[in-house]
Amino acid sequence: MPATAHLPIASSGSFLITPNVGLMVWVLVIFLICLWVLRRYVFPVIGQALDRRAEAIAGEIDSAADLRRQADEVLAEYRQRLAEARAQADEIVTRARQAGEAHQKEAIETARAERERLLEQTRRDVEAETRRAIDEIRREVADLTVLATEKVTGKVLTGDDQRRLVEEALADLDFSVLTGGGN
Amino acid sequence: MSAITAPAPGGTPAPAGTPAPGEGSEPRAGMSRGKRVALTLGGLWVAGLFFFIGVFGFKAHKAPAVASGVFTPTNEFKLDTWFSVGPVNFNKGVLYVLLAAAITLALLFYVARRLKERPGRLQAAIEMFYGLTSGMTRENLDTTLSRRYFPLIATLFIFILVSNLIGYIPLPVDSLDKFKLFGAHLPSFQIYAADTNVAFPLILALMVFVLFSWERLKAHHGPAGFLRSLMPAGITGPIKPLIFVIEVLSYFLRLISLTVRLWANLLAGHMLIAFMGGELGVLVGDPWVQWLLFPFGIAIYLFEAVLIAALQAFIFSVLTAIYLGDAVTSH
C-alpha cells in the first residue's frame, strides 16, 4: 500500500481523493506497454487494411465510372445505329413502295396498252370481216339480180347490162348498217 | 396490486369499453407486449414494496455493521494490498488495469490478425473506433503531429473505454467483504473500475499534460515563447497581467479538469449504482427502500454502461487531441 493509505485521514474516506502512487506507476507502465504494442503491431495493420480498402473502393468507383462511360458510349452508338437502321428501313420501305407503285403503274399501262391493242385488232378484224361479208353479199346480190333478171326477161344479159343492173340493185341497198356507219 | 396484474395473464375481456364491440378477446391482444411486460413488472414492484413493508416493517433496524460504523459505502473503493513482490503492491486496481490491458490487446490483436475485406460486427466496431480516433486526430493536428500522436490518442480511447466497461461487470474482488462457498472464504462480487481511483486518470492526464506542454515549448521556441503563447491575441493595457494569470491558471487547470472529469464521473456513477442497487437500503436499514430504489439502480447502471463509459473515453481522447493541437497552433 502507498504511504498515504496509512495516514489516519485515509481510513476516514480521503483515500478516494488521494492518488495511489503504486497504481499510478502500474497504470503508466501498462499503458505505455499497450501503446508500444498497439503502435507497432496493431494500428499499422488496421491502417494498411483500411487504406487498401479505401484504394480498392476508389478503384471500384473509378472502374464503375469507366464502365458507366463505356456503357454510355455503347448506348449512344447503339442508339445511333438504331436510328440509322430505322432510317434505312424507312428508306427501304419507301423505295419498295415506290417500286411497287411504279410496277403497278407500269402493269396498268401495259394492260391498258394491251387492251387497246386487242381492241384495235378486234376492231380491225370485225371491219375486215364486215367488208368481206359485204363483198360477199354484194356478189350474192349481183348474182341473184342477174339471175332474176334473166329469168324475168328470158334473155341473156350482156356484160354492160349485168353491170348496170348490179349497180342499180346495189344502189338501192343500204350497207351502212352492216359496216356500222348507219344508225 | 392484484387489480393491476390479475387480468393480464388471464386473457379475459376487459370490462372497460376500450375495445371494439364483438371482438371477444381482441382488446388484450391489442395491448403491446412491451406494455404488458411493463405493467407486470410495475405490479411486481409495487407488490414487492408491500411485501417488504409487511414482512420487515416500515422502520426496520440497521445492520450491526452499519450501526457500529464498520460498514461505510466508500469502503468498496479502498485498495487493499493483496500481495507484494518487493516494492510492487498488487491490489484490485492493478488487477483491473491488467484486465483492461489484456482485453484491449487481445481484442485488437484478434481483429488485426483476422482482417477481412467484408468485415464482421467486431471488425466493423474496431474500424469505427479507428476511424473515429483517426478523424479526431487529423481534425486537430497537422499531418506530422497526427501521425506521431494518433497511436497515443487511439490507445487512450480504447484503454479508457475498456477500463470503463469492465467496471460494470460484477467480479469477486471485494476482499473486505467475503462470502463462504463450500467452506472457502471468497471475496464478494462488486462492480469496480480502476478509473474510480484518482490515480488512474491523474497519471494519464499528467502524461498528456507533459506531452502537450513539451509540444508547446518546442513550437514556441523556449519558455518565454511558451508563456507568450498563453496570452490571447489582442489583449493590451493594464488588464494584460490579470488575463495572463487567468490563462496560466486555466492552462494548469487542464490537468485537473482532465483528471477530475473522468474520475468523478466514474466514481459518482459507481456510487450511484451501488446506492440505488441496495446500499442506501442497507444504510437506513429498511429492505423496502432497497426494493424501492432497485429499478433506478438498473436504469443508472444501463445509462452508465451504455453512454458514460464511451462518452468519457471519447472526451478524454478528444481533449488530448485538442490540447496537442492548441499547443502548436496558438499564438
Provide tags for this entry:
heterodimer, A: 183 residues, 4 helices, 85% helix, disordered N terminus, B: 331 residues, mainly alpha, 2 domains, two-stranded antiparallel sheet, 12 helices, 4 strands, 7% strand
Report on the architecture of this protein.
The complex is a heterodimer of chains A (183) and B (331). Chain A has 183 residues and is mainly α. Chain A has one domain. Helices cover 85% and strands 0% of the residues of chain A. Chain A has four helices and no strands. Chain A has helices at 8-11, 21-153, 159-172, 176-179. In chain A, helix 2 (21-153) crosses helix 3. Chain A starts with 7 loop residues before the first helix and ends with a helix. Mean pLDDT of chain A is 84; it is low at 1-11. Chain B contains twelve helices and four strands. Chain B folds into two domains: 1-15 and 24-58, no CATH class; 61-329, no CATH class. Chain B has a two-stranded antiparallel sheet with strand order 1-2. A two-stranded antiparallel ribbon of chain B has the order 3-4. The longest helix of chain B has 45 residues, at 240-284. Mean pLDDT of chain B is 85; it is low at 1-26. With 331 residues, chain B is mainly α. The radius of gyration of chain B is 27 Å and the shape is globular. Chain B has helices spanning 2-5, 7-10, 26-30, 33-56, 64-67, 92-113, 121-140, 143-166, 199-219, 223-230, 240-284, 287-329; strands spanning 83-85, 88-90, 171-181, 184-190. The interface between A and B is large, with 36 and 47 residues.
